[in-house]
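**Sequence with structure:**
===
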Amino acid sequence: MKMIRKYQFVFVIFIAFVFIQSLFFKFTNSPETQYIFGTLDLWAAGLGFGGVFAADGIFSQYVIGTFELVASMALLASLVPAMRGLRPWAALLALGVISGAIFFHLFTPLGISVVNTDGTRDGGELFALACGVWVSAAVLIAVNRDRLPFIGRSAAA
């Protein structure tokens, strides 16, 4: 556990890298993003929740991207010793966001292997990155659980 604690920055940088590199696609409404969120919105519409994944929906790429940006910035800020207390909270946010992504890959028509704009499949690359982010966030939470009063020792103790 000491070794993991010493090299937490690797998990922080990995999560931030994955989230930040995806922002271009989300915030520019790229064809890949249109396909992913369009597929999810059609699925949700079939359940009576149409529009939740649309560009103005509560789970749009802009909302999800904003949460990813906030988690990334907080994680990167946590690399500064005075801001280290942000790390478990940012990791919790990252875990929440990525848990949703994994759920939607597994339990909707989106699937594990997503279709690229040229008609090929990504071979599960997005899903694999999501799983890596999930594990990284879980490790950061576990290593920093003492900074979460509802999991570890009280912050006042």
Remarks:
- The longest helix spans residues 86-107.
- The helical segments are 2-6, 8-27, 31-46, 61-77, 86-107, 125-143.
